[in-house]
Amino acid sequence: MADAHDKDKVIFAATMAATFEPESMTNDKLEAATKGHGALVIPVFAAANSLAEDIFCPIGGPEMALMNRMTMVDAAAPELPLDMVIDKAVKASMRAGASPENAALIVAALAYFSGSCARSGVPLGNRKLGAIARMHAGAPRTSAIALVTGKFTHRIPAFPAYLAVYEALMAKKLTTVDGAILPPFIAGGAIYGHSALGEDYNIPELAYNAAKVGTGAMMQSMEGAGITAYALWPALIGAAVAMEIVHPDALLGEKFGKFGQVDSALLAGQGARDAAKLPEKLHIRGTHEEYDTAKVIGDFGLILKDIGGPSVIGSMALSEIFAGFEESPMIGAGFSGGPVNPPLGHLEGDCVPAMRLLLMNGGDVFAVAEAIRDYKMNSFIDPEVALCALNTISRKAEQVTRGSITKACILASEGVRDRAIYRRAAHTYDLMKAGKTVAEATRTLDEERKAFVEERGSAILSGFTGRKISLKFTEIKPHGRRTDKFTARYWGFDANASYDVTIDGKTYHVENLSGKEVPAFALEGKNRDNPDWGTVLFAGAVLTQELMYIGHTIINITVPAAVAALLGVDPKKAAKDAEDGAYLTRAIPGAGEKAREVAQLANSVYEKITTPFP
Length: 614
Description:
By secondary structure, this protein is mainly α. 57% of the residues lie in helices and 5% in strands.
């Protein structure tokens, strides 16, 4: 049992125990993720590590870097350096649990953002990035009909885009060129495909209009399923369906740009972008590099038409890869770019920024780490737990494959994670020495986090909406509409959150957000005549979910339990009481068991560090 003079040893032992292994930090099922079950976050890190290793090969000096040779466009050789790079990355991703189809999608996406071209354009030895990745993965060829959006409560397969595009084709609405009036030997050859009729008129029209129609159909179908039509995946599928029809290697006429600069994929990207109302430009987090949205969407249409049939978790992984853009909340990309920190299975969003930062900094992982930490500190409601979560998943990924991407992410987050644990251990020690129980200590920690989320979350919501927003929770408890014992303990499965929110000086009260107010708004039209009410519900949804998803980082339970055990409480009781008091961190089950293990280990560490040596 610790005495009053060894607070430093208590904090040290609690810290070492809480960070013993990645699983000690979280309720998320990390071991399952090493084989791709339910999420592809570790296969994405594995592929990114592999690609980074080949881009910055340490053997032989700078001349061995494959970056320039990865971007090769015109080559008739049977194999390129890119083949070797893709093959290694695909195998790394599959060893980490990705199926062949999902591995191909992950690697093609990461290779594209590393600088590889989406197409080659060589007529006989035709290479395209999606097909290269699919072939190295050994995935079967299929069409874009196999594509599916990421899961936004539901997911929508590509069929609506096909239906709309092919109905428009049969109605002759996508191009002003009517194939019925063409003389023989025009279509199918250079007189059409690489001449005025094709490159100046038909191909641009067909690519743009087909992608626009397909994207619109996907968005309508999402709305018909009762979900928000987040723009990214409808645009990607719309572009992919268009590129299945349109001549994929056509270079458009001079009115679109100089020879070789504008291809059919760009027009498909423009059609999809316009239908989805995406911004003109996208920017990588950390580097602020600017990408033309239409080019990115069109290139991914070209990639996706050849990639095979990735599953819904493959689509979700690609969404999270796109979370590397600063605009990810606007375009409906993944959740890992913030401002809410999601469960660990979604945390792929730092892989592309890390790769681009490595390129910008010549492979210097310490400079990359600084940049990652900087942008995450500015992108999240609670950047401390966001960086803790990044540290946890990066360390777990390193159990599967090590590399500069995971190393940079660990370096970015290590100090913040250590500070977070130190602060909780010291605070708990002081509270318990002042007579508080461990349950009272964990409740205090949760109350402090709630206040932080309210304050910082209100500021972030104000910046995002351009309105002055201030939100305070009046109650957070379980049983928004259930009555069972399980959800009575773990509120994340049936939240009953109430709050007051002030918008530009006018205050509204919401009672039971998810159990009553959201269904009433959606089904009964309650308050839909109030132009502020959508913002009222949006603000509460953002901050409530920030608190609900805390199962990814459970240090408000594990660290106090360790301190309590070191101060003489039985580890089993310390763990149970710590979970009992942490009414917010106790969102999902599992923290009590982890806390008991951490508390037992803390006692062992303390015993050893206080035993004279040798």
